[in-house]
Design goal:
Number of domains: 2
Strand content: 15-25%
Shape: elongated
Order of helices and strands: EEHEEEHEEEEHEHHHEEHEEHHHH
Mean pLDDT: 86
Distance between the termini: 77 Å
Oligomer: single chain
Largest sheet: 8 strands, mixed
Radius of gyration: 28 Å
Number of helices: 11
Low-confidence stretches: none
Amino acid sequence: MRAIRTQQSGAYDLYAFFIAAADILQIADISRIKRDGDELQGFQRKEIRAHVNSIVEFLDSGAVLFPNAIILAMSRNVTFEPSRGPSPAGLRDVGRSGTLTIPRGREGERAAWIVDGQQRSIALSRAKNSTLPVPVIAFVSPDIKTQREQFILVNKSKPLEARLINELLPEVGVLLPKDLSEKLVPSELCNLLNTRAESPFFGLIKRASSGATGVISDQALVKSLQQNLRPAYGGLATLRTSEGIEAEKVFETIVRYWTAVKSTFPNAWGKDPTQSRLMHSAGIQSMSALMDTLILRTEMLADPWSEICLALQRLAPHCAWTEGRWPVELGLAWNEVQGTPQHVSKLTQFLISKDRELARAAK
């Protein structure tokens, strides 16, 4: 294949080239971490099936852009033949072009090892488009210590914050993997809730672009909105059509519900989460789950919103957002509620079961 060769530190040959998706695992092995007695072998973790399937789904979704480079360590069995001919005037000679030859081999006997991108490599080998050209950066070093060092250095960098990714998603106009595409509409709704004056969340949501301002975690709100939009189970799912989500109607419904929550708990609204657990991620997620229950329970009534407001008012005396203790069913002081899955689940179950109990008693 055509490649560019350069050197670093006067000791390591590096190559940059493109290879067909189906050929990566024909030339490179995945060196799994394991122990043989006291000796540690390899360095790669196990295949993460869900991650691989997500990448395959993205690769098979259409005409995708996939510029993510695979990093390989190569043995000295590779050969490089520099191209001949004059160099253009003014060329910055940091690399030499030529032809790189990498022998194929049986598994465990190949001439290269994957240092970074094993999940991508597995997915690429299973993608429908087997000829998709994939960028590769490779260095020559059969030394396992050097390979492990590079593996650690490549993977130790901090990933992008979820908050930054969430805010960027609505501005991206390309095909996205399923796990990201499902957050696109919730993130756009989060933007609208934070920037429109009629929203009870106006100016209260922490976004990557707003720094430290705001009191509500956008991650908690995006996660909650994803649940609200779930087909069959979410209270906003009925606003889905064959053409997609009716964003404006969804926005109006969210504003109407949370305005009712704000009116029901005025002393808990807009405060820092350390002063109000309603503004905490636990409060946002549990009250969002309650919205699903209330909307689905009242959707066949003549005036569902009157019933939703009454339900919140019935529930209010049993809530401890800013002081006191929650009832014995929950058994926590107001400021003991945390954003852990266990606490969010317990608080959600309490609110939903108490609402049903009060609704039955009111009939």
